[in-house]
Amino acid sequence: MTWLMRGLVLGVLAFIVLGPLANLVLWAAAEQWYFPHKLPVSYGTKFWAQVFKPRGDALVSLVTSIWIALATVGACLALAIPAGYALARLKLPWRTAILLAFLLPQAFPSVAVYINVARIFYDFKLNGTMLGVILVHTVHGLVFGVWIAAAAFAAVDRDLELAARNLGGSALRTFLTVSLPLAAPGIMASAIFVFLESLDEFTGTFFVGVPDVITLPLLMFTASIAGNYQIAAITALVLLVPSVLFMLFIERFLKADVMSKIGA
């Protein structure tokens, strides 16, 4: 009976996790699928060719998404590295409050926040611009950037930094040659988290970027609303591939000693 219950639980979990993915794959491979058929009537690659045609909207949107994600990573790291080091090494007043402040973008309903952000950006002519979208993504990504960077620097042995200073290294040289290289795996992991978050971001891009900045999640939403489920499924799979690959890559860098320092 015990093995039966375990098998049942594992089967239910597998269905919950893999069921939507299997449905996505079926839609991506289907050329015709309509009620009352339980499976696609015909299969083919017609819609794949449509998505990946040289001048198709999907490729343009994918390139736009990647450029925005890379710019967001650069902006986040430029802020997260010094902020993370300061939070990990300096005796800052209200340190916990500062860390919690970076969680505020996640604490409120995103639609209400981005509607007001769009109104403010309109006054500065940032609506419908790449810069406006990058700024929104950067604020959103700082949650991962700062928290993981602070944990990565906190995991660096202070004695190594003190040894470098005792040997005559300046504070800047010690940071560049000791602290930063040792914290690099955690910082790389935070960069990947920010990249994936930016690549999948929809709400902020919708309110700030439309109609001039169209990323792949926006294209997927538009296709699904229009009933083009094959196009939506293919774009969803395109977004899924880098997420899976990067998450496997991250697993190598975020070790238990680093994770234990988050919020400490």
Helix content: over 70%
- The fold-level CATH name of the largest domain is MetI-like fold
The coarse overall form would be globular
* Reported CATH architecture of the largest domain: Orthogonal Bundle
CATH homologous superfamily heading of the largest domain: MetI-like
The count of domains is 2
CATH class of the largest domain: Mainly Alpha
Q: What strand line-up does the widest sheet have?
A: 1-2
Counting DSSP E segments of at least 2 residues, the number of strands comes to 2
Radius of gyration: 22 Å
Largest sheet: 2 strands, antiparallel
- Poorly predicted runs are none
- Number of helices, counting only DSSP H or I runs of 4 residues or more: 13
> Structural class, from helix and strand content?
mainly alpha
Mean pLDDT: 84
Topology:
Elements: H1 2-29, E1 30-32, E2 42-43, H2 46-51, H3 57-89, H4 95-101, H5 104-107, H6 110-123, H7 130-154, H8 158-166, H9 171-200, H10 203-209, H11 216-225, H12 229-250, H13 256-259
Antiparallel strand pairs: 1-2
Can you walk me through this structure?
With 264 residues, the protein is mainly α. It folds into two domains: 1-44; 54-259, MetI-like (MetI-like fold, Orthogonal Bundle), CATH 1.10.3720. It is 75% helix and 2% strand. Strands 1-2 form a two-stranded antiparallel sheet. The longest helix has 33 residues, at 57-89. The two termini are 44 Å apart.
